Structures are given as C-alpha cells and as structure tokens.
C-alpha cells in the first residue's frame, strides 16, 4: 500500500478486531508459476500470542499456492467507501476513498487431517452461532469427515503486517463530522460501517458511542 504514515496502525488489537468483523479474506501467493489468489473464510485464533489465523483451502488450491513453501500475503478488507468533496470545506474539490485494510504476512503451516477437521468445525460453529437453529458437523461427523478430505487446513502466524486506517485524519474536525454524518445517512454513498470506523478514531463526533 501507499506509504502514508499518518494512516498506519501497529495496534494488534485493532487488526484482530478487523479480522473478527471481516472474516472473508484474500490469500495471495507468489509461486513458481506466477501470482495466485484465493478467497476463504478465516478465523482469528483468540488464544494465540500475536496474530494467528486459520482457514481451509479446497483442493487443489493448496498445490496452486505451494502452501508451506513460502510467505503468503493475506488481505483483510474492512468497511470502505467514496468520500465526496461535497462534504469538504468550500474550495477543496479532490475526492478520495476511505478504507480500513490490513496486509498480513506469514508462511502457512499445513494442518493434519484431524486438526483440519477441528478448524472446519470451528468455522461452521462460529458462523452458525447466529442462526436460530445452528447446524453442526457433529450431526453427521462421518459424512463431514469424508467431505473434509477435499480440503486442506492451514494456520498462519503473522510475522509482519501493514495495516491502514484511512479515515480522513488529515481533515479538520468539522469536515470529519460532516463526512461521518453523510456516510451514516441515506445518500448515494452511504456506508454506515465506515461511519462507525470513523467514530472510533474521531470520538468528538456528536454520534460517537451511540
């Protein structure tokens, strides 16, 4: 990403929240055959030191990515949206795009069959927990284990990261307040999630904490 120091965050807790709230991640590998990208549901390992994530790949993606042979980039994208200069002070006519994004780097650890199945169970249980009648792989474990053979589990312990919160920090407080209000409204570029992210780092906004 572009080197903009005032948008960078090194706060692991901020990045962990981003992963929790945006579990659909992009996995990128620079392989012997060129660049490869895939998209998979991802879970943060809450009890791990540092930042550690687990996921599963459908076969043959693990071969295409050469899993475990080199460093991988994982992109986690949070709320983002167009910022109109109509929300700025008069005379400021250059639009931009606000976003919350993390680039995570690490070499994947390929999981054994049993741990892969445990990860699959955790993924299903995590997302099913919001359902009125959650489904579990335990309902038919034998069948689920057969299906699991078509997947490969992986763990990435993040060794470095590049995380950005580009949330109009370079604008005056009154302009930021106007942007937050516009994003939270019903206009053509409404993005309530992005407004929430801005409130977190600009707590002076009247709606902060609401």
From TrEMBL:
Alphabetized SUPFAM superfamilies for the sequence: FMN-binding split barrel
Matching Pfam families: FMN_bind_2
Q: Where is the region Disordered?
A: 191-210
Q: Which PANTHER family match?
A: PROTEASE SYNTHASE AND SPORULATION PROTEIN PAI 2
- Provide the protein name: FMN-binding negative transcriptional regulator
User: Lineage in the entry?
Assistant: Bacteria, Bacillati, Actinomycetota, Actinomycetes, Micrococcales
């Amino acid at each position: 990403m572009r080197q903009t120091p005032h948008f960078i965050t090194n706060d692991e807790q901020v990045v962990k929240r981003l992963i929790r709230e945006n579990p659909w991640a992009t996995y990128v590998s620079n392989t012997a055959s060129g660049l490869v990208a895939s998209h998979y549901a991802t879970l943060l390992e809450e009890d791990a030191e540092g930042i550690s994530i687990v996921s599963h790949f459908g076969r043959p993606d693990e071969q295409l990515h050469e899993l475990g042979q080199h460093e991988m980039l994982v992109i986690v994208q949070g709320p983002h949206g167009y910022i109109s200069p109509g929300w700025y002070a008069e005379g400021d006519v250059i639009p931009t795009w606000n976003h919350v994004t993390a680039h995570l780097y690490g070499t994947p650890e390929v999981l054994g069959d049993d741990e892969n199945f445990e990860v699959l169970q955790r993924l299903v249980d995590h997302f099913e927990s919001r359902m009125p009648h959650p489904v579990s792989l335990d309902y038919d474990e034998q069948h689920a284990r057969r299906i699991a053979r078509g997947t490969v589990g992986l763990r990435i312990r993040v060794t470095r990261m590049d995380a950005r919160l580009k949330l109009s920090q370079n604008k005056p407080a009154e302009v930021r307040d106007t942007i937050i209000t516009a994003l939270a409204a019903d206009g053509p570029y409404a993005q309530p999630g992005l407004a929430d992210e801005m409130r977190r780092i600009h707590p002076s906004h009247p709606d902060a904490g609401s």
